[in-house]
Write a structure and sequence with these properties.
about 130 residues; mainly alpha; Lysozyme; two-stranded antiparallel sheet; elongated
Length: about 130
């Protein structure tokens, strides 16, 4: 019986001796950086539209905020999302970006041109945006 107790004691001690330290068993998982495929386009559009001024207003077009959003765009966004944003909400860059990203497509040129409108002026607009990309 004495041999069994000694054997058990030795087994217990051997586990303690060979057990790795807690610090060595810590696994750190680094949070990956988010992929933001439209971030550069967003920044470029904001520079062209308002020179990054979140309080910009174009009285002639009734366009508001950093991305110069008009009422028809807000109405379309609200219809698609069920939200109830107003034109004044576009002064908030976070909301303006949300609206912009809702209409962004993988083709950056097409996204920029559609943001601007339609017709031959969109090519001029795209050339302005490209300078900031």
């Amino acid at each position: 019986m004495k041999k069994v107790k000694i054997s058990i004691l030795l087994i217990i001690l051997s586990f303690q001796v060979y057990a790795p330290f807690a610090e060595q068993n810590v696994l750190y998982i680094e949070q990956p950086e988010c992929i933001k495929p439209f971030e550069d386009l967003w920044k470029a559009v904001c520079m062209v539209e308002s020179t990054n001024n979140p309080l910009a207003i174009n009285q002639e077009e009734q366009a508001y905020g950093i991305a110069q959003i008009r009422q028809c765009r807000i109405d379309h966004f609200n219809q698609l999302t069920g939200k109830k944003y107003t034109l004044q909400d576009c002064f908030n860059p976070v909301i303006a970006k949300e609206v912009f990203l809702r209409f962004a497509k993988p083709n950056l040129e097409r996204t920029a041109k559609r943001w601007n409108g339609s017709g031959p002026m969109t090519e001029i607009y795209w050339n302005k945006v490209k300078k900031y990309l």
